Amino acid sequence: MPKEINYHEVLISPLTTFISEVGKSIAEAQQVLDSHSLELQKSIESSVANKELSDLGYQATWYQVPEVQVELKMTVYYEENESSEVNKKKLFFAPFNAKYQNNFNYKSEGSSSVKLRIVPVPQPFSLEKFNKV
Question: What is the DSSP code (8-state) at residue 2?
Fold first, then answer.
């Protein structure tokens, strides 16, 4: 009898989910960096011990995630759902690793590479519009 496979364990998911999770992780990391810099700046401005630094105009360092590149060796699976009223087509991806290879008896010749590059861009709107409300 074949062993039951835990699909979450081999990380099979639609490509949209994969990209979305990478984006969320980058945003969370940037938010942590920003929060730390803001806390440090507040500490410099409010602390008696840091008064000299504040008087000199010392500023906390702000860090930015300027670019993220992801390249993974993946297996690709295409699924077309014709049973519902809406014909849905999805691409599913799973990292090509030893666990996937052993569970599915998959050959590396069929794997693909997924390359993703995320870079910051200027915001497409002015925040002044939102502050006037």
Answer: P
Residue from 77, 73, 117, 69 nearest 93 by CA: 77
- DSSP 8-class letter at 81: E
State how far the Cα of 116 lies from the Cα of 125, in Å rounded to an integer: 25
Instruction: Give the predicted TM-score (pTM) of the model.
Output: 0.60
pLDDT at residue number 34: 95
Query: Which uninterrupted H or E stretch holds 21?
Result: helix 15-46
- Tokens 């364990």 belong to 9
Contact residues for 5 (Cβ-Cβ < 8 A; gap 6+): 103, 104
User: Could you give phi then psi for residue 106, rounded to 5 degrees?
Assistant: -95, 140
- Written as six digits, the tokens of 2 are 């074949």
